[in-house]
Amino acid sequence: MKAVSVTRSNLILHPDRTRVLVRPFNPTSEQRAARICAHVLDLPESEVHALLEQVQAEFAERHLKIGKFLRRRFEQVRCYLPTDKPIS
User: Fold this and answer.
1) Domain extents in the chain
2) Which of 3, 45, 60, 80 could form a Cys-Cys staple with 33, CB 3.0–4.6 A?
């Protein structure tokens, strides 16, 4: 392996809250994914709407396509959902 030369500087990098990456949570097993999905499906409808509004309010200005991202993520985890509950 080739050595890397590093030089210290006085430059300090600070986080920019306006630039955030959205990345999916990937559970370590199918059982864990199914448990998480079941927990979410058990939330009262009013809480689901409140949480969704909170996420959209927090990320909408930083992620113009947050709705599209969430829909795509839903499609990725749909297979873990129980088939006996209706999905709207």
Assistant:
1) 30-80
2) 80
Q: And the tokens for 9?
A: 């500087």
DSSP 85: S
Place of tokens 């839903």: 74
Q: Which residue has the tokens 């097993």?
A: 29
Nearest CA-CA partner of 41 in 69, 76, 68, 74: 74
Over residues 71-85, the mean pLDDT reads 82
CB of 66 closer than 8 Å to CB of 60? yes
The pLDDT tens digits of the residues spanning 25-51 come to 788 888 898 888 889 889 999 999 999
Flag whether pLDDT at 87 surpasses 70.
Answer: no
